Amino acid sequence: MNLFSRKSVIPPPSLSPQPSIPNAATAGPEAFANNSAYGRGFYEPGAYSVALKRCENGHDLAQQLADMLEERAQLESVYTNQLRAWSRKWHGELTKSQEYGTNKKVWDQSVTTGEQMAEVHGALSSSLTDSLIPKLRQWRKDNYEKSLIHYRKTKEFEKDFIDAQKSWNKLLDKISEYKAAYYTACKTAKATDDAERVATDEQQRRKLADKAEVARREVGSVKAKYEQTVNEAKEQRPRYEAAMKDVFERTQTFERKRLDFFKETFEEFSKVLETATQDNGTLKKMNEDFKTSLSAHDSSEDLAWWDQNYGTQTNNRWPEFEDYRD
């Protein structure tokens, strides 16, 4: 089974624009997320796949963040080694040079700054490599246990969503079946009425009249079944919504863990920067800007935005009786 491929019984609704929760995410490509679920009501068959995809994405995003920080650590390490090599080289060159006196001392001290800067960048690289990155990789491993192809948590949510939609989807199939039967019966009844109207032979007209009467009874019968199943759907809707929302809220809780952990990671990264840059005005400003951005991090706001665009707050097309129109 393709985890994120669902056949929708009801076509996607045409939605009018909604006011969105203030969040920078709504201004970017995240608002569309490059998936077919955007613009569909969450309660429509299979539309929950976007919630499953988000769970899967959590692992990849944790991997991506770890890779980014590891790349930064490697860059800092390479620069550290280059500064130390540069410093060793020029200390040696000055030892052999013809320079003398206080000028030589100052020149030598300028070379020493390379060693001192190397200590700053080396400490930053070590903090990332020894603490922050392993913690991130361990968290990802603990929270995304794999089962064959997919992650256990994703499979658990998928099973619960399927169970929640099972009886509802059967009901939608019945509605679709009775609607099609009703429309077919209406077409047959109309065609018979038209044939009776233009018939010239009396015997043929009587036969057509009998046939038209049977067709009209069939229209009444299937229309009643169609209306009955639509009413049944209206009665079942609150239970269905509650079951779907229960699973959805558990996916929200799982995602909140990821967002909160990422925030903790960013806070730790900020502390690493603070230690490395506290005596430098320019670098201190850089870290202050990062902390300002970090202070705006709000897991609840992100989850509310996601709920509005992909979850229980989306517009949904619910079953309604649609009379036949010629």
Mean pLDDT: 82
Structural class: mainly alpha
Shape: rod-shaped
- SSE succession: HHEEHHHH
Please list the strands of the largest sheet in the order they lie side by side: 1-2
Q: How much of the sequence is in beta strands?
A: under 5%
Number of strands: 2
Outline the biggest β-sheet: 2 strands, antiparallel
Uncertain regions spanning at least 5 consecutive residues: 1-33
| Rg estimate, integer Å | 34 Å
Count every helix, treating DSSP H or I runs of 4 or more residues as helices.
6
Helix content: over 70%
CA distance, first residue to last residue: 40 Å
Task: Give an account of the 3D structure.
By secondary structure, this protein is mainly alpha-helical. Helix content is about 75%, strand content about 0%. The chain is built from six helices and two strands; from the N terminus they run H-H-E-E-H-H-H-H. A two-stranded antiparallel ribbon has the order 1-2. Strand 1 and strand 2 form a beta hairpin. The longest helix has about 80 residues, at about 200-275. Mean pLDDT is about 80; it is low at about 1-35.
